[in-house]
Design brief:
191 residues; mainly alpha; 8 helices; globular; transmembrane
């Protein structure tokens, strides 16, 4: 659906510009923006490779496992039915840990596996369980200790200190996660 919306926005803008007599300016803008896009993508590629390597080292060194051990008791309190199944909790913990460390590519398979396991525990197949909704909120508002994407983009566009967003990012994502969990727990009582 979003592809269709973007297509119509672009077509409408281009047609409106051509009918307004700005065809030459539109073609110049398209060419210059595509040039800068390619340059940005190439500079991002190197930085993302570096951060993915650092995160892979964190994963191989056991840092993500240590974070998972810290998170497991907390998550057992938050998740009702999922806490009874070790495999489901394992997938949830690994997904959230990978997200916290900026390993979004590694987090996706764990997230899919966690949602499948949560669905197996769900008695009402036609609607999401409370645990599924809570997992979705935690996955979307996960605390980010190392926001690799933001750091990479800031470095690619020439920021003097691309990592200065780490502390505000941790604070913002922690608040978002806390508010999300509180809202889920309140909604569980009424819906």
């Amino acid at each position: 659906m979003i592809n269709i919306i973007w297509f119509f926005i672009l077509c409408f803008g281009i047609c409106f510009g051509i009918l307004g007599g700005k065809g030459e300016e539109i073609s110049k803008a398209i060419i210059s923006s595509s040039d800068s896009t390619v340059k940005l993508a190439i500079s991002l590629l190197g930085i993302m490779c570096l951060w993915c390597g650092v995160m892979k080292i964190a994963e191989k060194s056991g840092l993500t496992d240590k974070i998972a051990k810290i998170m497991r008791p907390i998550l057992k309190i938050l998740f009702k039915k999922a806490a009874e199944d070790e495999k489901t909790m394992g997938a949830i913990v690994m997904n959230l840990t990978a997200n916290m460390m900026g390993l979004s590519n590694a987090a996706t398979p764990f997230g899919i596996k966690a949602m499948e396991k949560l669905n197996n525990l769900n008695k009402k197949r036609s609607e999401a369980s409370d645990d599924m909704a809570l997992f979705l909120v935690l996955n979307a508002a996960c605390i980010q200790f190392i926001p690799t994407t933001v750091i990479s983009i800031r470095a690619a566009v020439g920021s003097k200190n691309p990592a200065e967003t780490i502390i505000p990012g941790v604070i913002a994502t922690a608040v978002a996660a806390a508010v999300g969990v509180i809202c889920c727990k309140i909604m569980e009582k009424y819906f």
